[in-house]
Amino acid sequence: MRSVERKKIGRRQRIAHGPATGPNQCWSADFVSDKLTDGRSYRILTVIDQFTRECVVLEADQSLHGKHIVTALTGAIVEREQAPRSITVDNGSEFTGRALEAWAIQHGVALCFIRAGRPVENGFIESFNGRLRDECMNVECFGSLRQAQERLAQWRDHYNLQHPHSALKDKTPASFASSYAESATCFTPIERNTANCGPLQGFATPAKNAALDPVPRLPENAKYRGEALFEIANARGSLLSLWSQLQAHQSSSGQP
What we know:
By secondary structure, this protein is an alpha/beta fold.
């Protein structure tokens, strides 16, 4: 039996990204699995903002494929009115599929894949998943998928609006995001169009091509120009007369 040689698939390029310095820069995504009381399995898609720690997506369904992820992420972008720059994910088939890749290219989002067997490289979402299990999934039992979805939506609101986070100086994620947005607005420099606007208050309009010590110019009118020249000549004659009188006085008094 002749064996067919398998095609070699190139390894995905992994680019090191620095820590997020603002909201909607870097998101993290992962899955959490659980079972209902009747034994049926379901999965939860979890997505958080690495900077504000906000839970962006918390969606449960029996099967979550690439199209489900694309729909959930598109809804999150509409809700937050901005797409992230990058999303950190693992190498699961849902994240490496063509559906998510095409969505990322369309929205200009970089997919950052962690190394296989290194969940610590996506520590933000791992910490969030642990809190989700401890505070919600291990505490309550869900009899139906609809009940799980409703309870997860309530828990998400409580986490974003009422749950303090130690990494945010004991602020809630929503409160931290709001205060950051206000501070960013206050310290953002205002761009001013200097082409068609007047001078700032308290300052005169600067003259174009003005010298530091400008030479006085003669009037354009011929009549006033003649008068100006006459005054300049008289002033020069007066200065020469004063200079002559000063020299004569010094000579008579014997001063140098």
